[in-house]
Amino acid sequence: MQxxxxxxxxxxxxxxxxxxxxxxxxxxxxxxxGKLPPAIPALKADLHTSLMQAGxxxxxxxxxxxxxxxxxxxxxxxxxxxxxxxxxxxxxxxSSLLGASAETSETLLLTRFFEGLGVLLxxxxxxxxxxxxxxxxxxxxxxxxxxxYIPIGTAFALSLGPWVIKPYGWxxxxxxxxxxxxxxxxxxxxxxxxxxxxxxDGFSVSPWGSRLSLTLTSxxxxxxxxxxxxxxxxxxxxxxFLPTVTQDMGLSPTSSGAVTAWVALVNMxxxxxxxFFLARALKKSQDRLQKQEEARLAKEKLQEELNFTMxxxxxxxxxxxxxxxxxxTPLVSSKVELPSAAPKPPVDPxxxxxxxxxxxxxxxxxxxxxxxxxxxxxxLLWIGFSVMGLGAILAxxxxxxxxLPAEYRFASxxxxxxxxxxxxxxxxxxxxKVSPSNECxxxxxxxxxxxxxxxxxxxxxxxxxxxxxxxGWQMTWSVTAFMASLGLVVTYQLGVMLVKQRTA
Length: 504
Fold this sequence. Notes:
Layout: H1 10-15, H2 18-34, H3 40-46, H4 51-60, H5 63-79, H6 81-100, H7 105-123, H8 126-133, H9 136-147, H10 149-168, H11 170-191, H12 208-216, H13 219-248, H14 253-265, H15 267-324, H16 349-359, H17 362-371, H18 376-396, H19 406-420, H20 422-434, H21 441-470, H22 477-503
Helix pairs in contact: 2-7, 2-8, 2-10, 2-11, 4-7, 4-21, 5-7, 5-21, 6-7, 6-11, 8-9, 10-11, 10-14, 13-14, 13-20, 13-21, 13-22, 14-19, 15-19, 15-20, 17-22, 18-19, 18-20, 18-22
């Protein structure tokens, strides 16, 4: 029997392509982020984990990203992209196995730190690795799937976790997650070619110190990173404690896991929608620029025709005078200087700056942000942060000791996650745009990841502290509302920077 070749199985070749294994590795590590929330009730019973300790267990996986994200983004290609991802998957697998044997919350907390290191080492090199393997539309599709790896992996873990934890315990759940990352490591080892590096494309030509200094002294990377921190602090705080909140409301562990999984999964809607809206805005902006260029060319053509007509008329008048008087000599130069050909006067820098300030006052800048297609990203961030802040208030706030009915609270959380999903998708697009140079894009993304981890590290413990002090979840909305308000302010500053860049 003849063995089928890869040409005989195009479907399998596409399904299990190298890019598939990279995305699968991302989903596998994201499951370790989402494996803890459904296990919190079991950890409370078995390890006597307090609510504050649960908050730190949720956020500890982000500690490595908070402290090392920038450096991993800088040196991932030096280590080797595939080798860096493989190292991360192995570290994550071993850490999860050690965590399954933990007998105290403190030991589990330590293993969560190493799990976070594995997540960081796996996730940071993945976009560059995909970029080196694919081109064109295939690259766009693969990066679109990669952008959704966290909600996919988190939703899968949140929905599957209760079904494993209830009959077999949280330790078996930890071992199952270790098996998933081991499978991802095997697929990455077998399916992704070795030796892929950004250096072969001339991606990094400047010394790493100068690229790092240029990134950290530029305003744009700081603003997008701060926005990412404000978003991630809210999202993980709400998603991380949602299984506990819903079980306190009377839902069973499996129903609670399903609810939380849906909330995490709808975050993909915002990710996809932001890319769609930004692509449309880019097309509108390009069409407008094309129309302006066509109008300029038409004006120049009209001016050339006018110049030609005037030159013909002048020549005709000169020929008539020569016929009447062969010895006629013009007293002035026969060359006609048209106003359009006159040189432009030098621009006074002081007057230019004063005019720019007058034209783009605060109100003018705000109008540009809310109307021009070039600044749709700013509007998407405003919408995302506003809906997240309002959704958390409607879900948790109480008036006279009464909350909204459960179905309205659930709808508010769904909107919180779905519309809020536009924030990270938009920030990744802006990260490329505000990077000080093409060589600094990876460092800018690493800086964004570091601040995202910072928000996820401090957000859940802060929410847990408020819930503990207030004796319930009714005031936890104040934390997320503050983060949403801060995100709105930082977004405005980002918009001001973008407007000034366009008018410079």
